[in-house]
Automatic annotation (TrEMBL):
Residues 156-222 form the GFO/IDH/MocA-like oxidoreductase domain. One of its GO terms (molecular function) is nucleotide binding. InterPro entries: Gfo/Idh/MocA-like_OxRdtase_N, GFO_IDH_MocA-like_dom, NAD(P)-bd_dom_sf. Residues 2-119 form the Gfo/Idh/MocA-like oxidoreductase N-terminal domain. It comes from the Bacteria. This is Oxidoreductase. SUPFAM superfamilies: Glyceraldehyde-3-phosphate dehydrogenase-like, C-terminal domain (SSF55347), NAD(P)-binding Rossmann-fold domains (SSF51735).
Amino acid sequence: MINLGIIGTNWITEQFVKATDETKSFSLTHVYSRTEAKAESFIADLDKKNIQISTDLEAFFKEDFDTVYIASPNALHFEQAKLAIENGKNVIVEKPITSTIEEFTILDKLAHEKNVYLFEAARHIQEPIFKKIEEVVADHRADLSGATFSYMKYSSRYDDFKAGKTPNVFTTKFSGGALYDLGVYTIYDAVVLFGQPEKVCYDAEFLSSGIDGSGSLTLSYPTFDVNIIIGKTKNSYMSSEIYFGRDTLLLDNGGDINHLDWADDNKNITDVPTNKSENPMDSEAVEFARIMTEKDQPSYDKLLKYARIVNRVLEQARTSAGLVFEADEEN
């Protein structure tokens, strides 16, 4: 197995580590946290033994492990990933990989120079249910006529924001907001299934902090549009849809996809059989480990291409909406 170090001691890091245990793809050996107490608590919750703890980031990257998984606030991804690559580590960064396309380009070039892998962890595109969606789209591509993807979920931090606090996910300092969280899933949906759009437009609903609490995007393709609805300040139970003229593929969600149906012109709805892992990060853990172990360059190049397009679309969307991060001023 591949030795793994992690940055971040939150729920998503715990889920990823559990996925690596379940699939025997990586072995956790090192944890970085700003405080030793948090790291110790995280390790205890996972019932792990003999894990090395670091509270100094530069010292952490000098340790003997192969790959780092980074799940810190968005604005910290770039510097942490850059330092990891400079120290010869393979890097898996939780989406979005960077705050700007310029940062992405720097990491991409540096990873190539250092001969290490750089992955963006957009876990849902690796799940069996998404692979089934790809199959359906490929089989009916001649009739493809557009899509609507919806992913809106009331953030657990939004009440704090309304109470006058400043959670990272609702600040421009940490590159937060709806687009650079739930929006990443839906843009991946469009890019993987349909390719790079010709035009991107984002109509954002801004919060007092200058960040987007919710909004709607239009991605324009030569013969159809993809409409995207995202939000962290409200809940939506609307399904997502991919259109094939008279027929429609129904997804229960644009990001956390659990069920598929096929609806025909006569309003007959048929279940589309597929699989769903209990831990949604199992498939990406397996695929990242496989690519590195087998040195599968074509598969790696494909994922990197998706990441490049998605992060370019994200920046185009921000520009169209007038959404500015502090990271823009630093670059």
